[in-house]
Amino acid sequence: MLTRMTDEDWTVVLEVFCACRSRRGAKGRDDRRFLEAIHYFAVHNVTWRALPDAFGNWNSIWKRFWRLSQAGVFEAFFEALASLSRTAHLVQMFDSTVVRAHVSAAGAKEGQNDQALGRSRGGFSTKIHLKADFDGLPLAFHLTGGEAGDSPQFEVLLDLGPDVTPRAALGDKGYDSKANRAAARERSICPAIPYKSTARSRPAFFPKALYRARARIEQLVGKLKRFKRIALRCEKTNTNFGSFVALALGLIIVKSVHTA
Fold first, then answer.
1. CA 76 to each of CA 22, 63, 143, 172, 255: distance values in angstroms, whole numbers, following the listed order
2. pLDDT tens column, 88-101
3. Are 152 and 144 in contact (CB under 8 A)?
4. How confident is the model at residue 118 (pLDDT cuts 50, 70, 90)?
5. Residues 6+ apart with CB under 8 A from 194
6. Quick one: pLDDT at residue 207?
7. Percentage of residues in the chain having pLDDT higher than 70
8. Secondary structure string (H, E, C) spanning the chain
9. pLDDT at position 26
């Protein structure tokens, strides 16, 4: 099972985590037990109070997670792993997925306007916009409300992730627009985006063999949603939910590298 971690996996995770966390402030007594608790929490989507006693006091775990989330440690953890991509310079792929928001996700103290929550056909939801390399490993992500379209986020994703310029950018018809193609070409990237059937002028050639590789980012979405805390958003704030997404994507990189 993808979400099951071995001792070898935890060794890699702990090395990267210790390198990314701040050297200032109080340190945890057992980093591995803390990360195992967060992993269990993200996979099973239980309440904080329902964490098994073997992980320690649930309130202490929650407070430490909140402090690290505010400091951006989980995002730094993911970015450090994403920067090791071996194929980001060749092809980068784009896709998105909508996750339903639980009723507990509403009610943030400062309001929910800036918390990546919105109304879509699926109801109260969040959309995760992903960028992956040619191997299907994540490079970057961006959160918006569930009603947001894919096309406006294409240029945002181009500038996120490792500072590497790929040869081609793969996206489905949701990214079909002149502005997106122009944005890719301005960065010396060849856009491999299919034209919609309503397009007036379509080129005679399209790299179908290359486009088939886009299935790998769809498989990445499936791996991400095995973390039930991601598939059903319960966090009130964009920061906390983004931390869970970053941690899950980082763990996917570690598992994928070890099983390749």
1. 11, 19, 16, 29, 18
2. 999 999 999 999 99
3. no
4. confident
5. 172, 173, 176, 206, 211
6. 84
7. 93
8. CCCCCCHHHHHHHHHHHHHHCCCCCCCCCCHHHHHHHHHHHHHHCCCHHHCCHHHCCHHHHHHHHHHHHHHCHHHHHHHHHHCCCCCCCCEEEEEEEEEEECHHHCCCCCCCCCCCCEEECCEEEEEEEEEEECCCCEEEEEEEECCCCCHHHHHHHHCCCCCCCCCEEECCHHHCCHHHHHHHHHCCCEEECCCCCCCCCCCCCCCHHHHHHHHHHHHHHHHHCCCHHHHEECCCCHHHHHHHHHHHHHHHHHHHHHHC
9. 54
Q: Which two tokens stand for residue 163?
A: 């500072």
